[in-house]
Design goal:
- This protein is an alpha/beta fold.
- 42% of the residues lie in helices and 26% in strands.
- It is built from six helices and eight strands.
- A four-stranded mixed β-sheet has the order 2-1-4-3. A four-stranded mixed β-sheet has the order 5-6-8-7, covered by helices on one side.
- Strand 5, helix 4 and strand 6 form a beta-alpha-beta unit.
């Protein structure tokens, strides 16, 4: 089960090897007790003695129901995971002589990616002797960054790595333009209702 990976992390009750432990908690005075007395106090409260910080001198323990303690840990980990921002990197590939139609098509996709909050890594792939046109590739990538300056900021200027010249762009504000569009739609809707 999912709790199994958390269960082995903490020593409880008789598993605690220290001679003295510091007990912390809401109902108990925070001080150092001999292990036998700490176990007795936990038994009186009909709860478990859980070692929270084993590396402290003396180890820090808490008197709490162990299953409740595991539930709180799991809940805290889930909240932290939900707060993490996941950043996707979308790649866009060009050739050194990409024509305007293909360029505009890829530019449109890049704008969409940036509006969604994703990073964009654009690269020009040089095949065979086309490496002779590396200046054209650099110009193409700089033009691409310039056309996206309203949507993105440049993280990394064009760099030639083997047969690839890459540029890295990240959104100026993730989802900001979507919020603006939603606000605009809301205002238009309210104006229509008032008329």
């Amino acid at each position: 089960m999912k709790n199994d990976n958390l269960k082995g992390q903490h020593r409880i009750n008789e598993q605690i090897r220290a001679k003295e432990v510091r007990i912390v908690g809401d109902e108990i005075e925070s001080k150092v007790y001999p292990i036998a007395q700490a176990l007795r106090i936990a038994e009186e409260h009909e709860a478990d003695l859980v070692e929270i910080s084993p590396n402290a001198q003396p180890p820090v323990c808490r008197i709490i129901d162990y299953s409740k303690f595991l539930y709180q840990l799991k809940k805290r980990q889930k909240e932290q995971k939900a707060k993490q921002v996941k950043v996707n990197v979308k790649e866009i590939r060009f050739g050194p002589q990409t024509d305007d139609h293909d360029y505009n098509f890829k530019l449109k996709h890049a704008k969409g990616f940036l509006e969604d909050g994703d990073k964009v890594k654009a690269y020009v792939f040089f095949k065979g002797r086309s490496i002779l046109f590396k200046e054209q590739g650099e110009v193409l990538l700089l033009r691409f960054a310039n056309d996206l300056e309203d949507y993105a900021k440049v993280d990394q200027m064009p760099v030639l790595e083997g047969k690839r010249m890459t540029i890295q762009l990240s959104p100026k504000k993730a989802g900001a333009s979507k919020k603006i569009n939603l606000k605009a739609e809301k205002v238009v809707k309210e104006e229509k209702e008032n008329v």
